[in-house]
Amino acid sequence: MSYEGVKYQIIIRDRSLPADARIEALRKWCQIFHEKDLAPLYPGGTHGNMSFRLEPGKPGIVITAASSSFAEPLSDDSFFTIWDVDFENNLVIASGENNREPSSETLLHFSIYQARPDVQAILHGHCVSISNYSGQMNIPTTSEFVESGTMKIVKSVLEVLGNHSFIEIKDHGFISMGKTIEDAGELAMGMLGRSAII
Ligand SMILES: [Zn+2]
């Protein structure tokens, strides 16, 4: 598993932290993903990231910060608001704590929300069991391994996204989507349960 460093430029518009009630739900699911080993720890953080859309039809999202450990409840500065992404110039316009950075997969989350107006929440995790049995479970899977945090991974996911709610990123992890954070979380738990009995 490679280091998921941030590979885009960030413009921090202001230091205000998101104050949306749904942050509690993100915290809860970060904890559940940690407990169920859906987001393994590495030195300095957790392999996983989560987001929700602020308002249907608008670009703004809230996403977990890079180098967040899901082993403890996430601190208030572990969340960023992403207002917009300038894909041509690889720029992310955000609000959040200056000493942190938004998730390395911000471009991926933002692109999925753009492509899928119905999706209001995205949970990304890494699970050996789901990966091993994604074929038997007929989970749409990207065609080849590509480096995380890049536009290549964004393109590979958009290629297979369609109207699916659950995607496997080849040799990497999964993306669970829903109309709510709860829906996306329950979907991932269901997939974990199914993979455990194959
Ligand atoms: Zn990942």
| Heteromolecules bound | zinc ion
**Low-confidence sequence ranges:** none
Q: What count of domains describes the coordinates?
A: 1
Mean pLDDT, nearest integer?
A: 94
Please write the CATH class name.
Alpha Beta
Query: Gyration radius, to the nearest Å?
Result: 15 Å
Gross morphology:
globular
As laid out across the biggest beta sheet, the strand order is 1-7-6-5-4-8-10-9
Termini separation (Å)?
24 Å
Structure description:
The chain has about 200 residues and is α+β, with helices and mostly antiparallel strands. The chain has one domain (about 10-195): 3-Layer(aba) Sandwich (L-fuculose-1-phosphate Aldolase). The chain has five helices and ten strands. The strands form two sheets. An eight-stranded mixed β-sheet has the order 1-7-6-5-4-8-10-9, with helices on both faces. A two-stranded antiparallel ribbon has the order 2-3. Strand 2 (about 40) and strand 3 (about 45) form a beta hairpin. The longest helix has 16 residues, at about 180-195. The model has no long low-confidence stretch (mean pLDDT about 95).
Concise structural overview:
The chain has 198 residues and is of the alpha+beta class.
Keywords:
single chain; 28% helix; 198 residues; L-fuculose-1-phosphate Aldolase; alpha+beta; two-stranded antiparallel sheet; binds zinc ion
Helix and strand layout, with pairings?
Blueprint: E1 9-14, H1 23-35, E2 41-42, E3 45-46, E4 49-53, E5 61-64, E6 79-86, E7 91-95, H2 106-115, E8 121-125, H3 128-132, H4 151-161, E9 166-169, E10 173-178, H5 181-196
Parallel strand pairs: 1-7
Antiparallel strand pairs: 2-3, 4-5, 4-8, 5-6, 6-7, 8-10, 9-10
Helix pairs in contact: 2-4
The structure holds zinc ion.
Zinc ion (ZN) binds at residues 4, 47, 124, 126, 148, 172-173.
